[in-house]
Structure formats: C-alpha cells, structure tokens
TrEMBL record:
InterPro entries xref list: GntR_C, TF_FadR/GntR_C, Tscrpt_reg_HTH_GntR, WH-like_DNA-bd_sf, WH_DNA-bd_sf
Domain HTH gntR-type intervals: 11-78
GO MF annotations in UniProt: DNA binding; DNA-binding transcription factor activity
Originating organism: Inquilinus limosus MP06
Keywords assigned: DNA-binding, Transcription, Transcription regulation
Protein name: GntR family transcriptional regulator
Pfam families xrefs: FCD (PF07729), GntR (PF00392)
PROSITE patterns the record matches: HTH_GNTR (PS50949)
Coiled-coil intervals: none
Amino acid sequence: MPDHIPLGGEGPIGRQVYEGLRQAIITGLLPPGTALSEKDGSGMFGVSRQPVREAFIKLVEAGLLQVLPQRGTRVRKISRRQVEQGRFIREAVEAAVVRLAAENIDAAALQRLDRSLAAQHDAARRHDHAGFLALDEGFHRLIIEAIDCLPAWSTIENMKAQMDRVRYLSLPDVSPLEMLIAQHEEIVAGLRARDADAAEAAMRRHLREILSSLGPIAERRPELFELEG
C-alpha cells in the first residue's frame, strides 16, 4: 500500500480524498483486494478521518470499495456486469448529447476540442497513459459543456468507474492510444460539419470499443475480476 497519495481535484477535502482514492484504484495503485481503513486513508492523505469516511461512502456507491462483515473495507474487484451496464447507459446519454452539440456547438467550443486533441497526441507520443485518460475524460466533458448540460456529466461520472478501470488496463496493448484519438477526431469532424448523424455514429463506435477489450483483459487478468454467474 502506498504511503502517500496526492489529493485529487479541487473543492472540499472529502471530494479531493475521493478523487485521489478513485484515481489510485482505477490505475491499479490500489489493486483489487487491498484492505483499507479510515486510519490508512488518513495517513496517506494527511487529513482527519472524517473526509476519508465521506470518500469511502462515495466509493462504495461507485462500486470501487466494498464493506465485508468482520473483514473491513477492501478495494472491489471489477464487475463485468457493471462495466457493460455503465457503458450502455453512457452511450445513451452521450449519443443524445453529441447530437445536440452538433446542432449548437460554437467556434470557441470547437477550438477547445482541437486543443484537447493536440494534447492527446502529445500524451500518446510520451506514452503517458494516465495523462491520456485524464484528457479523454476532459474531451467528453467538453462536449457536454458545449451544450451547457453538466448534470449529464454527473450522471455519467457516477456510473463509469468500472469502465475507467478496464480502459486503463486496455492501454496500450488492446486499445492503442492513436486509435482512440482517431475516434475522437471522427467525433469532432461530425461536430464541425454540424452532421448530427455522423457525430452520433462516431460517438457510439468510440464508446463500444470497450466491449472488444473487456473479454481479452478478463482472460489475461482473471484475478482482477469478480466471479459472476
């Protein structure tokens, strides 16, 4: 277990502890089965136990931690069922978002997306997988911001934690970064052309990529996945 994990994001300490732990779980710094206590979290972040307790509650809700009777709190294994369910709901939300964005996006929003694509290419050249995933998340959020509908992002964020774990494991062997960037470029091309059908089709192809990587990863790393009937 790491001695120190940096706080994540901004805002209240509880939120920063949550973001820091979430990132550590997604990237495998805290692998499935790792036992965690409020005391551990307090020491890793240098904070009191109260914000750690708040973060634990949110991480249980996100499916990243589980509380086992008489065994304490542990990092949960990846649930293939939750990955598939989260992807299904995310596709429905983002397909609707990108259609609306194609009809309403302005030049400033397109410039922000272009800058994101340039940063993604830079991360790929540096083999910065964690950095790329952060940029990927930011890319999707930019599209939602373009239609001023941040509640849609909150809906996605609350259900994609298991997806993010698989996405991190898929890089770069199963899902090469340049392939994912090319998919992002197709989405932006549809938005720039104000072609809602093309933008939606590109978004759906992109979000279904995880379905092709889920099986191979589960076969290669079965110890990371829950046994589900």
